Amino acid sequence: MLNYTECLRRLIGDVVGRVPALGHIDESRLLVFARLGRTGADGSIATCHCLTLPESEPGYYFWQDVETGRVLRRSVWFVAKTPAVIIGGQPVPYMLSFALPRFCDQRLASSPRKRVLYAGAQDWIAKLDTIVHELYHVDPSGTGLRMMNGGCRYHSAAFLDGVAQLVRAYMVSKPDPAVYDFLRYDFNELVARYGTVVGTTFRTSHPQRYLEVLPNQPAEPELDVVPLNVAPRRTQYTDADLALRRFSVIGCRRVPSSAASRAA
Ligand SMILES: [Zn+2]
Q1: How far is the CA of 151 from the centre of ligand 1 (A)?
Q2: CA 160 / ligand 1 centre spacing (Å)
Q3: Model confidence pLDDT, tens digit, residues 35-48
Q4: What is the 34 CA–ligand 1 centroid distance (Å)?
Q5: What's the gap in Å between 155 CA and the centre of ligand 1?
Q6: Bridge partners of residue 36, in order along the sequence
């Protein structure tokens, strides 16, 4: 049995210990979790989630007349909040999530950008690039995500080049190959080698920023007001919300607790 999130956690600890530019990251307070993402399906490969974003300024959605620009109606006022994640009694400032099996099946060949950045490198470097990429999003200030592109969701060339430099810095530091060996194998090869691939997951959907309607609505000029269609969201998550799941090429399912303790 291979615990993939444990392997990622160990590698991340080694990377932040060897690459000074990532030295601000306290890996003991970084939660690494897996979520289902099939190979070939749309969706991200990995994500950096910031849990230290402050409550947003109050705001509302509004709908305008396309031709005149006049505001026709608005939603109720709301604020955006970030749920707290408390693991081992400590608040977690950042989480990294990895889509399995999609992450395991990345190749340099399928990314024109990475193919150029890492010309001549082995295929699995594409996975190390993804890990370092998500770590690079952890802002040295401890709040927010470093994008280096004015908050645009597309990354600047400087950000992507910066990631590649850190990947090279890590490899030049001559890490123990045993720490990154698991990256050499795609998902089917891991199953052939270890039989079972498990990872830490959230029992239900993972923590995400949510909207909360202001209890006292500011007085506004007369406009049609539309209620916000938001389901109640969890405001706090703890160790009790984590579960070990076994991943396959088509899905994942919970690992019974007796087997989970053997895999830990
Ligand atoms: Zn990114």
Answers
A1: 11
A2: 9
A3: 999 998 888 999 99
A4: 17
A5: 6
A6: 100
pTM of the predicted structure, to 2 decimals: 0.89
Which token pair is 156?
């600047």
| List of the chain residues with pLDDT < 50 | 264
Measured N-to-C along each axis, helices 125-136 and 157-172 cross at an angle, to the nearest 10 degrees, of 120
CA–CA dist 264, 259 (Å, integer)? 9
Name residue 48's beta-bridge partners: 96
**165-186 per-residue burial string, b: 16 or more CB within 10 A, e: under 16:** ebbbbbeeeeeeeebbebbebb
- Residue whose pair of structure tokens reads 């405001």 in the numeric block: 235
Which residue in 229, 227, 189, 191 sits closest to 210, CA to CA?
Answer: 229
Q: Are 197 and 263 in contact (CB under 8 A)?
A: no
Q: What six digits make up the tokens of 129? A: 């690039």
- DSSP-derived secondary structure letter, 212: E
Cβ neighbours of residue 48 under 8 Å, at least 6 residues apart?
Answer: 94, 95, 96, 134, 135, 137, 138, 145
In this structure, what token pair is assigned to residue 215? 């209890």
Hey, what are 191's tokens? 């199953």
Which is nearest to 187 in space by CA: 125, 102, 78? 102
